[in-house]
C-alpha cells in the first residue's frame, strides 16, 4: 500500500475516534511532554494514527505531541510528525470551532523539509481530509469526492488579502512573541483563531493567502503542513527570509519561537515580512 493511502487511512481512523468519543473527548487525562493538559481526544486520536501505521508495518519513527518519540521499527526508513488534535482551545469551546489531526511523513530519519513524502490534515469539526503526496499535488477528500486544490494567486498585500495569525500562545502564556508584530498589520484583514490545522487548510485551498505564526512544540504542525503547502504552490519563510525547504527538520524544530510566514507565493510573503520586521511601523 502506498504511503499516502496509509496516511489517509490513519487520519480517517482518527476522525472515527473523534466522533465516537463525543463530549468525553474533552476530558483532561494527562500532562504531555510540554507541560500542557492533554485531552482524551488528543491522546486517543494519536493512538489511532499510530495503530494504523503499525498495522501496515511502516518502518517509521514518529514524534508526536502527546506520546513523544515512538519507534514503530528497529530500522526506520521514515520520520513522521503527529499532532493528535491541533486547535484544542477551539475544540473545548464546542460547536463552531475548527480543529483537526495533522500528520507528516518524510524520507529518512534526519530529513530536510523538501524530503517530504506525505502530509495530511483531517478537519474533524467540519469534515474534510486535506492531503498531499510529493510531486502529485494537493487534494481535498470530502463526502466521498476528491478534488485538486491549490493556493490562491494573490501577489500583493492590500485590504482584501486574507491573513491568518495564531496568537493563542501569547494569550495563554502571557508572552509577546507575535502579538506586537501582528499589530503592525492593523488595517489589513487579519483573522485570528487558535488552530494551525484550520489556518493551513484554508491556505492550501485558496481561502486564505498567508499564515503567520512561530515554531513551538517541536514544529509538529508546520512540518505536517509543509507538504500540502508546497504541493499547493505555496511557500514558507522564516522572519529573516530563509526558505524552510533547504533546512533540516531536526535543526529548525529546536529554534523555538522562530517566526514563520507561510504564503501562497514568495512576493506576498516578502511584503508581509517587510512589515513584520519594521521597527518603527
Automatic annotation (TrEMBL):
It comes from the Bacteria. Keywords: Magnesium, Metal-binding. Mg(2+) binds at residues 65, 83, 85-86. GO terms for molecular function: inositol monophosphate 1-phosphatase activity; metal ion binding. Pfam families: Inositol_P. Its cofactor is Mg(2+). GO terms for biological process: inositol metabolic process; signal transduction. PANTHER family: INOSITOL MONOPHOSPHATASE (PTHR20854), INOSITOL-1-MONOPHOSPHATASE-RELATED (PTHR20854:SF4). This is Inositol monophosphatase.
Amino acid at each position: 500500500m502506498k504511503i499516502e493511502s496509509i496516511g489517509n487511512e490513519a487520519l480517517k481512523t482518527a476522525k472515527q475516534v473523534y466522533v465516537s468519543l463525543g463530549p468525553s473527548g474533552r476530558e483532561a487525562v494527562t500532562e504531555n511532554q510540554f507541560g500542557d493538559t492533554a485531552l482524551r481526544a488528543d491522546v486517543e486520536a494519536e493512538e489511532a494514527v499510530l495503530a494504523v501505521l503499525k498495522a501496515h508495518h511502516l518502518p517509521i519513527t514518529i514524534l508526536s505531541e502527546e506520546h513523544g518519540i515512538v519507534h514503530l521499527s528497529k530500522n526506520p526508513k521514515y520520520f513522521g510528525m503527529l499532532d493528535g488534535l491541533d486547535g484544542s482551545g477551539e475544540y473545548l469551546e464546542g460547536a463552531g470551532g475548527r480543529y483537526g489531526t495533522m500528520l507528516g511523513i518524510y524520507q529518512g530519519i534526519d530529513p530536510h523539509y523538501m524530503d517530504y513524502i506525505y502530509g495530511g490534515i483531517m478537519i474533524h469539526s467540519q469534515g474534510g481530509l486535506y492531503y498531499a503526496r510529493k510531486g502529485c499535488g494537493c487534494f481535498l477528500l470530502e463526502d466521498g469526492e476528491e478534488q485538486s486544490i491549490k493556493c490562491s494567486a494573490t501577489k500583493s498585500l492590500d485590504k482584501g488579502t486574507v491573513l491568518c495569525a495564531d496568537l493563542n500562545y501569547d494569550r495563554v502564556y502571557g508572552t509577546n512573541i507575535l502579538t506586537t508584530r501582528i499589530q503592525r498589520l492593523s488595517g489589513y484583514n487579519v483573522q485570528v483563531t487558535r488552530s494551525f490545522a484550520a489556518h493551513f487548510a484554508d491556505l492550501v485551498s485558496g481561502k486564505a493567502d498567508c499564515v503567520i505564526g512561530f515554531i513551538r512544540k517541536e514544529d509538529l504542525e508546520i512540518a505536517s503542513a509543509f507538504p500540502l503547502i508546497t504541493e499547493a504552490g505555496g511557500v514558507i519563510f522564516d522572519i529573516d527570509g530563509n526558505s524552510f525547504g533547504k533546512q533540516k527538520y531536526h535543526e529548525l524544530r529546536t529554534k523555538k519561537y522562530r517566526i514563520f510566514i507561510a504564503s501562497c507565493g514568495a512576493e506576498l510573503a516578502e511584503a508581509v515580512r517587510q512589515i513584520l520586521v519594521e521597527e518603527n511601523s
